[in-house]
Amino acid sequence: MYDFFYGWYLKCQSDTQTLAVIPAVHRSRNERICSIQIITDTDARTVTFPADLFRRAEKNIFIGENRFGEKGIHLAIDTPRLTVRGNLHFGSLFPLKYDIMGPFAFVPFMECRHSVWSMRHSVRGNVCINEKKYFFQNARGYWEGDRGRSFPKRYIWTQCSFSDGALMLSVADIPMAGIRFTGVIGVILWRGREYRIATYLGARVVQIRNKTVRVVQGNLELDVRLLEASEQALKAPAKGDMVRTIRESVSCRASYRFCKGGDTLFAFETDRASFEFEYFS
């Protein structure tokens, strides 16, 4: 038996409400369990289940009566502290042209591997969480995943959907073969075109300071800045065990600027960004 985790992150967002759901399975020397994390603008809850309730079939994850996949989400959680029921339906997904990990997808023994299943899709449906209702009509969705042993010790992740596209950026301290380096993976979907920013394409971080990250790759430059956090505590894997606490702002104020060849393709500030800033000097 070896340490391992596998999970998806599914985010649904309207103009006024945000809901992210993380179904996952975890295996360590101590135990094997599965879990569902429910994150909103104001709260985060975790429910654990016996590992044998976890099942993956094609592009779906099942945990008991709960289902997650390309068609949407069905939630049926009933505990003394948390009741969640509802259905969310996804429209056509927008997958990447190729694996976000690029050639690193074939490197063995990596601490964590990332996947992006859909950069953008429509969401409709309703969910009730402890009698509070969440309504999604022509809302925006995003779907990614992680697998491996542990989350990076230091990392920054942000995701945002906006009128003409969507973006995701992750900057992390990567251990590999006895060395460490700052790895970058990111995608900017802008007016139907996909721009890939990644270490394997020559991307480099030129600034991490004051909650600001600047990444340059050839004639491309992406600046992201966390302006005002709204953090909720989430559980994250460390050698398979969900014992690490990270802080996510599932819906917060941030700014983004993307340039190509010295021309600004977009620059905006939003209060609908998602951010994890687990990077300390």
What does this entry show, briefly?
This protein is mostly beta strands and 281 residues long. It has strands spanning 4-13, 18-27, 32-40, 44-50, 54-57, 60-63, 66-69, 72-78, 83-90, 112-129, 132-148, 155-162, 165-176, 179-190, 193-198, 204-209, 212-217, 220-228, 232-238, 241-260, 263-278.
Task: Note down, in words, how this protein is organized.
The protein is an all-beta fold and 281 residues long. It is built from no helices and 21 strands. The strands form two sheets. It has an eleven-stranded antiparallel beta sheet with strand order 4-3-2-1-11-10-9-8-7-6-5, with no helix packed on it. The protein is globular, with a radius of gyration of 18 Å.
Q: Low-confidence parts lasting 5 or more residues at pLDDT below 50?
A: none
N- to C-terminal separation? 35 Å
Q: Give the overall shape, derived from the CA principal axes.
A: globular
Largest sheet descriptor: 11 strands, antiparallel
Write out the strand line-up for the largest beta sheet, numbering strands in chain order.
Answer: 4-3-2-1-11-10-9-8-7-6-5
How many β-strand stretches? 21
Oligomer: single chain
Helical proportion?
A: under 10%
- Tally of helical segments: 0
Q: How much strand content do the residues show?
A: over 45%
SSE layout:
Blueprint: E1 4-13, E2 18-27, E3 32-40, E4 44-50, E5 54-57, E6 60-63, E7 66-69, E8 72-78, E9 83-90, E10 112-129, E11 132-148, E12 155-162, E13 165-176, E14 179-190, E15 193-198, E16 204-209, E17 212-217, E18 220-228, E19 232-238, E20 241-260, E21 263-278
